[in-house]
Amino acid sequence: MPYRYILFYKPYDVLTQFTDNSGETKRRTLKDYIPIPDVYAVGRLDRDSEGLLLLTDDGPLQHRLSEPKFAHPRTYWVQVERIPDASAIARLQTGVTIQDYRTRSAKVQLLLSEPLLPPREPPIRFRKNIPTAWLEMTLTEGRNRQVRRMTAAVGFPTLRLVRSAIGHLQLEGLKPGEWRELAIEEIKPFKDFRRT
Length: 196
Fold this sequence. Notes:
Low-confidence stretches: none
Structural class: alpha+beta
Number of domains: 2
Largest sheet: 9 strands, mixed
Strand content: 25-35%
């Protein structure tokens, strides 16, 4: 039986797993959206993050895309508090020290306009006297809460985080909570990806 590949637009406040054993009040999981058995998320998105998630039952591909040495790119739209200056952007691009490690270099740019995204429910907190800005950040590593920790390290806390791309796969065409199966041609670039 051929492998299955699912592209999902994870909404805010959804766990990147199929079960919730926390004992807390019921929290939404992938099971609330994806009725396909035996597929698993490749990587994670925090509960308070949104955007693209790839799921598959292809173990070798899942390993390849989760292994840091293969350094496949993931792009995020990041709404931050205040307007980052050139110095902060340069620091994000060259890498910042978070806890006990230094991040890899990243592609980072200040977006001139807000990305076309549906409103988040609940909305982010706005402060009348503090402006916000959007960054586009492309990373080749995915440590726990890395984007949030990076922007905080340079003095611009993240307010909203949306993964807009995984490699060549884009968010366009999906709404929060929607998913679609990928054709084998769409997965082929990941299988051809060479170690960096």
